[in-house]
Write a structure and sequence with these properties.
Low-confidence stretches: 1-25, 61-74
Shape: globular
CATH class of the largest domain: Alpha Beta
Mean pLDDT: 84
Distance between the termini: 100 Å
Number of domains: 3
Strand content: 15-25%
Length: 476
């Protein structure tokens, strides 16, 4: 006891001599690199997303947890009455690419944060460089920051795309602090970060691409966008499941989330808006990949139906609403005898669960025994559609292949199907009919409840149906 009393002042004085940076409290956590779930200890399986071996140890200081540098203080914001806030009639920045501008809601909103995700090699960087070239052609100064390509590689890409404007500034950098200083000195009108997974903050000890780095980089860029009014585009990679790599928090932080869909083996690319605070959601833009970049497709319906076979069993045309835009697509079905105890169900471009439900309705209400048949379905052109208004078309395609009878020429099929076999009303029916008529179809099957509320149109015959049985009698 005497020894402890004697030594205590010495220990206290030694602790007081330790620098503040050493005494700074450090929190060590394990973070899931798939979903961002945090836990104080290592776990083999993430309880949130169910993935194995995704936890990585990360050390965060108090300042890093708050999203600020150590010793850096932020002045608190002042609350103001909402009626006293004045709105400036700011014009959106248009890129000249009509498909891209329409998906954004009419153009780029100043101060917005946009996230663009897609598979590697799908054309994200190509689209961004073409959009920046359109903005530069309208007098805007733009900055393209690449963490994956050198400036020489960017020059080669811009030469191929004919996008070598003097107002496009490019840099190859991954340090977030240097990028923020560069923005402060150059004052660009639009900023593109390609990609967000390659950016890192020196204040964090984790590697680039980790959850902490992605979250920190997105937060700092979001603050930059809101305070300066500079629109910021974040290019992000996607996982094998099709979700943007990194925590789901990233999608909640941004104003707009765009997915660039398509197969590298197909020439068509679809830009889909799944979140947009300044425009319609589920809006799509259709592009065609060519040698000199992406060309917008002004009439997707004509493109998707250009190679449709005539009088082929298992083929039906329907109208799908993508945001505010109707698009005619071809649904294809193939039903064949199976040699297995459990028949195969391969569905591309449609919801497999929805198709299974409709097949059960066909067996119960139409007497078509499909349990002994393999079923394959596809949406021609590689497009993905998920809408209840296509139920009757799906049933018609499967029945056409099962009966080996082609659907009567010139028919468009629309309608949602209930579990009792009734055909229910759908939305935007007049818009769909207008697109159908423009593409040269002369007969349209629609729900009877919709037929009562619309005016007859010249040049197209509208046929109302109440059940799927009536639809089958008319089509075959």
């Amino acid at each position: 006891m005497a020894w402890y009393i004697f030594m205590r002042p010495t220990i206290s004085s030694a602790l007081n001599a330790i620098p503040d940076i050493v005494k700074k409290p450090i929190k060590t956590i394990f973070c899931c690199q798939n979903c961002g779930y945090q836990t104080p200890k290592w776990m083999g399986k993430c309880p949130d997303c169910g993935q194995w071996h995704t936890f990585v140890e990360e050390a965060l200081t108090i300042g890093e947890i708050r999203g600020t540098k150590p010793g850096f203080t932020v002045a608190p914001a002042t609350a103001v009455p909402i009626h006293s806030i004045e709105l400036d009639n700011e014009e959106r920045h248009t890129t000249g690419i009509q498909e891209f501008d329409r998906v954004l809601g009419g153009g780029i909103v100043p101060g917005s944060l946009v996230l663009i995700g897609g598979d590697p090699g799908i054309g994200k960087s190509t689209l961004m460089l073409q959009a920046l070239n359109g903005l530069a052609g309208r007098g805007h100064k733009v900055l393209y920051v690449s963490g994956e390509e050198s400036v020489r590689q960017l020059k080669m890409r811009s030469k191929r795309l004919s996008a070598a404007s003097s107002d496009i500034f490019v840099v190859s950098e991954t340090d977030l602090e240097l990028i923020l200083r560069m923005v402060e000195s150059n004052h660009p009108d639009v900023l593109v970060i390609d990609s967000i997974q390659t950016m890192f903050s020196p204040d964090l000890t984790s590697a680039p691409g980790s959850v902490s780095q992605v979250r920190e980089s997105a937060m700092r860029l979001m603050l930059l966008s809101k305070k300066t009014g500079i629109p910021v585009f974040l290019v992000g990679h996607v996982t094998k499941e099709g979700a943007i790599a990194g925590p789901r928090l990233l999608e909640h932080m941004v104003d707009t989330v765009l997915y660039f869909e398509g197969d590298r083996n197909h020439v068509f690319r679809i830009l889909r808006a799944v979140k947009n605070r300044f425009g319609s959601t589920n809006e799509i833009g259709v592009f065609e990949m060519k040698e000199r970049g992406l060309d917008e497709v002004a009439n997707p319906s004509a493109v998707f139906l250009s190679e449709r076979p005539a009088n082929a069993p298992g083929s039906v045309v329907t109208a799908s609403m993508e945001g505010t835009r109707p698009i005619l697509v071809e649904l294809q079905a193939l039903a064949g005898n199976t040699s297995f105890a459990t028949p195969r169900r391969t569905i591309l471009g449609l919801d497999p669960n929805r198709v299974a439900l409709l097949v059960a309705i066909m067996e119960k209400k139409l007497g078509m025994h499909l349990m002994g048949h393999d079923l394959f379905m596809n949406v021609a052109g590689g497009v993905k559609v998920d809408e209840p208004a296509l139920d009757t078309a799906i049933i018609s395609a499967v029945a056409s292949s099962f009966l080996d009878k082609s659907i009567r020429e010139g028919f468009i099929v629309l309608g949602e199907v209930g579990l009792t076999g009734e055909v229910r009303a759908i939305s935007h029916v007049e818009t769909r009919i207008a697109e159908t008529q423009k593409m040269g179809f002369r007969k349209c099957l629609i729900p009877q409840s919709n037929l009562k509320r619309i005016v007859e149109k010249e040049g197209i015959e509208l046929i109302g149906i109440r059940t799927v049985s009536e639809a089958m009698e008319i089509l075959f």
